[in-house]
Amino acid sequence: MKELLKQAMDDLRSQGVEYADARRVVGTTEILVMKNGKLETASVMESRGFGIRVLAGGAWGFSSSSLQTPEAVREVTAQALAIAKASAMVGGGGVVLDERDAVVDRYESGYDEDPFEVPLSDKLSILAECCAGMSRTDGVKLSTASLMSFKNDKLFVSTDGSEIEQFILETGGGIAATAMNDAGERQTRSYPASFRGDYATRGFEFTRSLELAAHAGQVGTEALELLNADECPAVHTDLIIGGTQLALQVHESCGHPIELDRVFGTEASYAGTSFLTTDKLGSFRYGSDIVNIVADATCEGGLGSFGYDDEGVPAQRTEIVTDGVFTGYLSSRESAPKIGQKSSGTMRADGWNRIPLVRMTNINLLPGSGSLEDLIADTDDGIFVDSNKSWSIDQRRINFQFGCEIAWEIKNGKRTRMLKNPVYTGITPEFWGSCDAICGEEEWHIFGIPSCGKGEPGQTAHVGHGVAPARFKNVEVGGKR
Amino acid sequence: MIEKTKLSALLSEALRSSPADETELVVWSGANSLTRFAESRIHQNVHEDNTYVTARVAMGKRLGVTMTNSLSPADLRSALARAIEVAKASPEDPEFPGFPRSDPAPAADTFSEATATMTAQQRAEAVGQAVEIAAQKNTTLSGAYRVSAFRFGVFNTSGTEQMYDGTDAALSVFATDANKVNGATSAYAKGIEGIDVAGTAQRAVDKCVAAANPVSVDYAPMDIVVEPRAIAEVISWLNFTAFGAKQVHENMSFMAGRFGEKVMGENITLVDDAFDTAGIPVPFDYEGVTKKPVTLIEKGIARSPVYDSITAAKDGVENTGHAGSAAFRGGPAPRNLFITPGDKTREELIGLVDRGIFVSNFHYVNGLLDTRRALFTGMTRAGTYLIENGRISKAVKNMRWTDTMMRFFSQVDAMTKDRESIGASWGAVGSVTTPAMLVRGFKFTGATEF
User: Fold this and answer.
1) Handedness of CA B61, B66, B70, B76 (dihedral sign)
2) Which one in A62, A316, A466, B19 has a CA-CA gap of 20 to 30 Å to A55?
């Protein structure tokens, strides 16, 4: 297949296109979900194919096929070129890419234990133990345990002469207990994060390190306690956000708005644009002085780590917010030159049949100092929330509202009563401007989110967020409505 | 798209040679094409030829599922072998009733030849037409024009053999003026014959022009006149959290424990009818079972969720033919939903409001705050106006809302007699056909800067 795709690049070059690339991807996904000890999903999915992207007349065309034959390569190549010519009919193209040297390389993500080689019976035993552990608590009516593993074998070639092979292995899992009462109320508690857990670009050793079964008992207990907890009050107060929730806060209010293609309006009709317009770069106060955020695709094990993006650009670390000031974007070979820069290497595609888009890598809030207990001890009056339950943000990423699984009241430096149904809301730059404390390295962890959506047709990216719990002043917190 | 008799022969042979106790093969084979535009320029333009085969096997009551995108006999054998391996390692599912046998679905009007053969150039010409309309009002356009053509089939060892050819077409249009004010709308149909490109673009541009110079309004509960696109978005979320038997069994649905009770206003009747051509017909489900009409809400009273074979067996009721993909086990879900219309025009709805908000679109709705009460949040977007003394008076800045959908659909004072079919946001062929509504006391809970 490599030779066929290289021949396609030669053919396109001889036809005078400005640029073209081709990707062959073999992707395998395993999903295991057990509920109340009964296996709900046990599926293995494999998808193979190739896609060719052509820049001709300053406009893009892309075509793809699951058939990997010489005839299919010829047909897809011709289709991609024809589509590029059609694109140029409206708006006249105008796409210019940054300059790149050819890269010939192979990258493999590190792992100790291939999750696809772990016997299925071992994985099912873990899930069964988790369900049993959660169900030991009376009142837990639904115990859910999930494991997912992903394997991607990619080949990239381009008219620039690049030939890059990548093998990336990802794994992880999570548990959730749902308690219900006779009144029909239900409360869910999860570990290590909601919506199927935590994931990393590592082998099954990462999944084992989560020790899901060891946390099952506490998850079940807290789900039941939530049923009997007081409602979170509606107040303006100091808010401490735990890591699993803060990861999503970073994702929605920082990660998406720094996608430079979004800034230029490419997602306007779908999930929207961004308030971080290019005139703000280098001067806009995004957060308080202690807020430092980087996009780092080179973090070992981060779910947003890789060797090269899907334009063949090496993985990089980019400063996004420096001492509270907005300083950088996620960008591509097309978008970066528009602001006089080179690509930050974040173009990623969800498989062979999708074009690469500017996507998050690991968007990390750098740690401050101290433990979570230190931070709570330093808070006279506040609320500590964690674990996401719902999320919503406006089309420019300014007004947000998050619901969380759980909260605790903080009084005089101590975590006191548990609160249920917490919701908080804010305006992004005001909110990050109110950040007055971030916990240290000992609390910092990269949470992997395997479900970041973007684009039409829809694409799902695997991204990471390194965070430690942090405190925000005078936040609007609400309870049940 | 693979030829029909060849596909039938491949699947039949794979079933015959399967060593599993029971075998089910679900195939989708086809092409998706999408032209995306922003700032009045085509910036993404893609085509995909693909085939998915989901192989589900039963070894006794142990189930295993694999998915491959190859139709070669060797790959099908390999997929089946892996599914058997998974099944053998899995615990028994005592509720598994066996793969269902279904009579062939009646013929339905599901295919448009012009859509299946539409070229990138034709899509570009359509987008160009829309962009010209926008330019006349000094606005730019973003959006997407998507067409799909596919062959979908389900074969199983219980004797089910179903196959149909389908198409659909969707156009979204989002107009923006020099001050970044927006207006948006969309069109969805079985084929491109049902897509009014010029009309859809004009509506988006008109909304954008009317949205100029928005003012802030104090957020508080207010009456709203809400258009079908916004209603379809909340219905799509209810599809995910409430309307399937699995969500009812897990007590996630607002309808759980409330069947026979009033959960919405008496003027709300919600039906799933797969063969109603006012929407997009979907003749059978992912288990090959011919779909049956289901009344979910009748005059405000919760009547029934939709079922697949496993949930129907659990409840001892008839399978309604609403299974989803076995690879994900999200449970059964409706695909072609209809809300019974009212008797008003859009202008008459507006005329019934002293002071309120006209909502064209919702944005980033999330229905997970409290699924038992269907407590949702979201934003307004791209066409939000103040209604004063029965008339739209000016544009307003967008607002956040947080409200329960049980209350929302209990406070519907009037509906239009005309309905619109909105392409479902659940990612598969399907639609929500709904009138516009006047909803009293909708809870706005926040504001944004634009």
Assistant:
1) negative
2) A316
